[in-house]
């Protein structure tokens, strides 16, 4: 793995290509919209077209594991090929698998997705902290050791999220406790003025919740993966209002607004470039 920490590589990619993460979400409706069959051949054609369009052109690509897993072991093999081809092209990947467990099970997930030997290794992995932030320790430590990252769910854009994430324990919201954990793990990077290896998932559609819950995102030195742009209703202009003084650490995620431009490689690349430029201008 690269000797540079994940946060350093992410900042360089964002500076070079613009702060944008493009999803690869080969769900059935998109396969049909591209005129592809909803089977393994359609999955492979869709995924590899996205690789051709985005590799070397965007800061980060985020495959959604579930849409590959639904096709069984052969679908997972396509996912591994996607991750490998993007890695060979020097394009950062976040595997959106939202893993979260305890003990040896979490250690196995960490080895599968974050170790140098993992068959499904990516540059970063999304993880769920709702068994307690401390339950993520195996993944946090493997990521730190290999120069990879994790993105921890903190304040998500789905309407069910606030019921858990805004809930309080010991006078602190669950979301704030997650941010506190990330800040502690990123402390050394923060002291160097760098992004840390522990990122946070904070939706671009959460309104004033970041400020209202006192999350202190800027002090956490966390990269901030921000879903919700485009089809979910948020626009580039919302980012500054939602994230405040942490806006420079935001990595907006788009999927449908870019993927709907397919199946043309050129149209996909142009859509990604358009969104990257609009986000860069807004920030």
From TrEMBL:
PROSITE patterns: OMPDECASE (PS00156)
Keyword Secreted: no
Lineage: Bacteria, Bacillati, Actinomycetota, Actinomycetes, Micrococcales
Positions of the Orotidine 5'-phosphate decarboxylase domain: 19-271
Coiled coil ranges: none
List of catalytic residues: 98 (proton donor)
Catalytic activity: orotidine 5'-phosphate + H(+) = UMP + CO2
SUPFAM superfamilies documented for this protein: Ribulose-phoshate binding barrel
Pfam families: OMPdecase
Enzyme class at the top of the EC tree: lyase
Protein name per the record: Orotidine 5'-phosphate decarboxylase
InterPro entries assigned to the protein according to its UniProt record, in alphabetical order: Aldolase_TIM, OMPdecase_AS, OMPdecase_type-2, OMPdeCOase_dom, RibuloseP-bd_barrel
UniProt family annotation: Belongs to the OMP decarboxylase family. Type 2 subfamily.
Superkingdom as given in the UniProt entry: Bacteria
PANTHER family reported in the protein's UniProt record: OROTIDINE 5'-PHOSPHATE DECARBOXYLASE (PTHR43375:SF1)
The protein's annotated pathway: Pyrimidine metabolism; UMP biosynthesis via de novo pathway; UMP from orotate: step 2/2
Keywords tagged on the record: Decarboxylase, Lyase, Pyrimidine biosynthesis
EC number(s) reported in the record: 4.1.1.23
């Amino acid at each position: 793995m690269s000797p540079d920490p994940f946060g350093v590589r992410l900042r360089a990619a964002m500076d070079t290509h613009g702060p944008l993460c493009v999803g690869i979400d080969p769900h059935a409706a998109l396969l049909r919209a591209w005129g592809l069959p909803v089977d393994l051949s359609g999955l492979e054609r869709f995924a590899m077209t996205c690789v051709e369009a985005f590799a070397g052109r965007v800061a980060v690509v985020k495959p959604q594991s579930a849409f590959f897993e639904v096709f069984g072991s052969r679908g997972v093999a396509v996912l591994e090929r996607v991750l490998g081809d993007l890695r060979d092209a020097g394009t950062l990947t976040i595997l959106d698998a939202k893993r979260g467990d305890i003990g040896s099970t979490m250690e196995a997930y960490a080895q599968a997705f974050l170790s140098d030997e993992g068959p499904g290794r990516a540059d970063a992995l999304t993880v769920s902290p709702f068994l307690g932030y401390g339950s993520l320790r195996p993944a946090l430590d493997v990521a730190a050791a290999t120069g990879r990252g994790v993105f921890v769910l903190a304040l998500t854009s789905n309407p069910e999220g606030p019921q858990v994430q805004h809930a309080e324990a010991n006078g602190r919201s669950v979301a704030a406790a997650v941010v506190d954990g990330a800040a502690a793990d990123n402390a050394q990077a923060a002291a160097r003025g760098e992004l840390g290896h522990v990122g946070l998932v904070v939706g671009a559609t959460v309104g004033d919740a970041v400020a209202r819950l006192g999350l202190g995102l800027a002090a956490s030195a966390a990269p901030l993966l921000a879903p919700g742009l485009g089809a979910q209703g948020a626009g580039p202009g919302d980012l500054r209002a939602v994230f405040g003084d942490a806006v420079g650490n935001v990595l907006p995620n788009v999927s449908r607004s870019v993927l709907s431009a397919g199946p043309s490689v050129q149209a996909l690349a142009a859509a990604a470039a358009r969104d990257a430029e609009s986000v860069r201008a807004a920030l």
